[in-house]
Amino acid sequence: MDARGATFEAVGVRNGRIDAMGTQAAVAERLERGFSRIDLHGHTLLPGFYAAHDHFPEADENDLYQVDLNSQPLGTVHNINELVAALKRKADTPDGIARLAGA
Question: Where are the domains of the chain?
């Protein structure tokens, strides 16, 4: 995905980072022995986007007045007990009590 719309046959990853792009032969030559090969069967590989829309300036305010109840990969909640515990932790803060009381 570049300004020219270039496409590549293969992508080589080393230590979690893209290290090579090009033909399968060129990428295989650049990588160390023992690398894994994943055949996408003609499909397209795209970067992993975690969010299509964010409001970064509001992040601090969100931490003060909201509770993150997202499950993975966005949050840390795995089950209903963890969800209730997160709500209780927020309610037990001075600001949390005022918010829950409607102040």
Answer: 1-48, 56-100
